[in-house]
Amino acid sequence: MFGYRVRLWSCTVEKLLQLRGDKCKFILAYVSRAKIMDSMVVNEAIKHGMRISEVDGTRSVMANLEGVIFEMTVK
User: Fold this and answer.
1) For a Cys-Cys bond, which of 20, 48, 54, 69 suits 29, CB 3.0-4.6 Å?
2) Source organism's superkingdom (predicted)?
3) What 3-state DSSP class applies to 25?
4) Which of 10, 14, 29, 27 minimizes the C-alpha distance to 75?
5) How far apart are the C-alpha atoms of 58 and 68, rounded to whole Å?
């Protein structure tokens, strides 16, 4: 279920970034219980030719949830 949604999301982000080229960044912020989400998001972004990096100092843990912010650009 998560994998399908992440694939759809990454296709959409790729198209948006390609419209603006190197003048554009995509910021993704999310909170999740699933530890696997980080690797799924990073792997899909790389598959679609994007650079992805975690924004320093944004990872937070709240109870059993973890939040993070990623920045993506086109390669």
Assistant:
1) 69
2) Eukaryota
3) coil
4) 14
5) 5
Distance CA 66, CA 38 (A): 10
Task: Quote the CA–CA distance of 21 and 74 in Å, as a whole number.
Answer: 7
Q: pTM for this structure?
A: 0.81
CB contact at 8 A, 15 and 8: no
State the virtual CA torsion across 42, 74, 49, 10 in degrees, nearest 10: 50
Closest among 71, 17, 75, 66 to 37, alpha carbons compared: 66
Structure tokens at 14: 């790729």
